[in-house]
Amino acid sequence: MATAKDRASAPAGSGLNDDIGEEKRLEMYRTQVTIREAEQRAFDLFLQNLVKGTSHLSLGQEAVAAGFAGAMRPGDLSFCTYRGHAHTLARGVSVEKVLGELMQRDNGLMRGKGGSMHLTSAEHGVMGSYAIIGAHLPIACGAAWRAQYRGDKDVSVCFFGDGTTNIGAFHEALNFAAVWKLPVVFVCENNLYMEYTPIGDVTAVPHPAGDRAGSYGLERIIIDGNDADVVYRTAQAAFDKARAGGGPSLIECLTYRHSGHSRADPAKYRPEGELERWKERDPIKIYKERLLQFGIAEKLINDIDAQVRRVVDEATEACKAAPVPPVDILTTDVYADGGWAWRN
Amino acid sequence: MAELTYRDAVIRGIAQEMERDPDVVFLGEDVAKAGGVFKATVGLYEQFGPLRVRDTPISEQAILGAAMGAAMTGLKPIAEIMFSDFIAVCFDYIANEFPKSRYMSNGQLKCPLVVRTGNGAGSRFGAQHSQSVENWCMMIPGLKVVAPSSPRDVIGLLAAAVRDPDPVIFFEHKSLYATKGEVPDGEIVDQLGTAKILKPGTDATILALALMVPRALAAAERLKAEHGIDAEVIDVRSLVPLDTQTILSSVARTHRLFTVEENPRLCGWGAEIVSIVADEAFYDLDGPPVRITTPHIPLPAADNLEDIVLPTVDRIVETVRRSLKS
Fold it and tell me: What confidence score (pLDDT) does residue A271 get?
């Protein structure tokens, strides 16, 4: 946390300790940098063939994860997609556990049994990453139903991409959540591309989530997903509404992925200059400027950057040194008795 | 002891578990205020209230997904998919989500839920509302699959399914809803993974499931009375876990195996059992195992046609008689 002497003279009225506050802002900055460094490292490890299988990075989309996680309480639940590293890290799961799973080592979050697309850490409230588009929206409804039924105050937060808005489960879940008034928040990360295809080419409305909200009696919420403060404030309002029994929200966050859809995609379909324009609105750049504007000393920011890099470096080395999963876990946890027996 | 219909047994089974455990909740289309399209959930809404017995939109993915989310966070949901044919529109949950979350998460996630569904032919509903699709589920690691044939088993196996920590697909046969059977008073809790010898015999083992069980029993009576063949009839009851020991030890005594399956022939449950028997009890057999199934065609609507395609008592009797004579 910054102390008074770390702070340069803040511009009058900039209000670092406004509704968000210095501590939360530094936390959200650290989260974004952690995601950026870990994702970049994952990409580098692909090139060394140390990350196997596929992987879907959130480079450029860090503010959505940081803003929502920043507004979540312990006990709130995250439901992620195959592009879920960012949301997993944002809930406080260690870089080593995430990279270990991407590298399919025994120190991974699920000891290599799930892989990059299924990151899960129940103890952090990360209730799975789902690789079948749309599947987790109804699942998040169910977790929210449990909260409603028991009078628990947690909120289920469900992240997905713009492409998800065109699958049936999206519409089933939105209607279901609205009719049952469930404490669930649906977060569409609109990064403009449904895999390799511009979302506008395959969607009947300009805003794939926002323009559908009215169909389910919900408010049309479309925000700047590259500004963690905007995301945080929007999340807070949606969570407050959910906890108060006001039902679901659907939030469309406008953002952009700096990398391709997956490991295999060099993203050649992008128009020239688009990536560069979005990089000018890089969420980390925006947030760093915000912190400086609010008078946080550059040294403190640089220290966070250095600490994160050290964490990622150490995690990388630990993962490289970690063994592959032992063969004896192959048949564990198929059934609740711990084993895989289907017959006597 | 009371005589109960299979339909009323469903109601009693669900009520028994909901009374016992407040975490048991129930959702589906028309299940609450309307009491279910098969009237197999009448009175539950009145007894347990709108928070525990809930009507849903026609959204099978939402129903199964919501059941899963509730299950993984502490409830014990029972979800109804009205006709088992509709599993096709929410198969993602059955094939990819329920059965894999525990494994993929290395044991972090759980999925203790029951999907009840109306299965099977006999109502002249045609090809999309009459299928026996238990084999769609049997092939998926991580699921359990049950199909009771009697009111008593409905209650006992449903209780076992609700109390089981794994996802269970519970196939109720639509053509059995009106059938009656003796049911003891008080709580009934059975055990998944147990087949039941309903009629002991020495000359042949006949395996059957759900609606095929009463037909196999009737066939066994006729085989005995008309042909002097003493067949053993086993109700398989649970496809996963599968009680292979009861089946193998029966075959070791009778030396002949017949399966009576309502599902279309390819990849029916009998094929798996025959392969197990061939593998592990080949030298116990005095003749080839024989599968009596619905042919590999979509189901017709017309009553005379539907009656021909399902295994009948006549077909079972004839097939067993001919096989044992040859």
Answer: 93
Asked whether the ipTM of the predicted complex exceeds the cut of 0.90, the reply is: yes
Tell the CATH superfamily of the A21-263+273-320 domain.
Thiamin diphosphate (ThDP)-binding fold, Pyr/PP domains (3.40.50.970)
Instruction: Report if pTM > 0.90.
Output: yes
- State yes or no: pLDDT of B229 exceeds 80: yes
Place A16 in a pLDDT band, splitting at 50, 70 and 90: low
Partner A contacted by B56 (CB < 8 A): yes
Residue B64, chain A, CB below 8 Å: the answer is yes
**Closest residue to A336, CB basis, from B54, B102, B242:** B102
Q: Domain residues of chain B, as ranges?
A: 2-183, 196-325
- Cβ pair A334:B77 closer than 8 A: no
Q: What is the 3-state secondary structure (H, E, C) of chain B?
A: CEEEEHHHHHHHHHHHHHHHCCCEEEEECCCCCCCCCCCCCCCHHHHHCCCCEEECCCCHHHHHHHHHHHHHCCCEEEEEEEEHHHHHHHHHHHHHHCCCHHHHCCCCCCCCCEEEEEECCCCCCCCCCCCCCHHHHHCCCCCEEECCCCHHHHHHHHHHHHHCCCCEEEEEEHHHCCCEEEECCCCCCCCCCCCEEEECCCCEEEEECCCHHHHHHHHHHHHHHHHCCCEEEEECCEEECECHHHHHHHHHHHCCEEEEEEEECCCCHHHHHHHHHHHHCHHHCCCCCEEEEECCCCCCCCHHHHHHHCCCHHHHHHHHHHHHHC
Catalytic residues of B: 129
Whether B43 contacts chain A with CB within 8 A: no
Identify all chain A residues contacting B97, using CB atoms and an 8 Å cutoff: 130, 132, 135, 139
Tell me the per-residue pLDDT of A209-230, one tens digit each, with 9 for 90 and over: 999 999 999 999 999 999 999 9
Where along chain A do its domains lie? 21-263+273-320
pLDDT for residue A7 is more than 50: no
Averaged pLDDT of chain A: 94
Instruction: Please check whether the two domains, B2-183 and B196-325, share a CATH topology.
Output: yes
Instruction: Using an 8 Å CB-CB cutoff, list chain B residues near A178.
Output: none
Res B134 pLDDT > 90: yes
> What CATH architecture is B196-325?
3-Layer(aba) Sandwich (3.40)
Domain B2-183 has CATH 2.40.50.840: no
Mean model confidence pLDDT for chain B: 98
pLDDT attached to residue B292: 98
Q: Which of A115, A332, A344 sits opposite B243 (nearest CB)?
A: A344
Q: Evaluate if residue A162 carries a pLDDT over 80.
A: yes
A:153-182 residues touching chain B, CB 8 A cutoff: 156, 168-169, 172-173, 175-176, 179-180
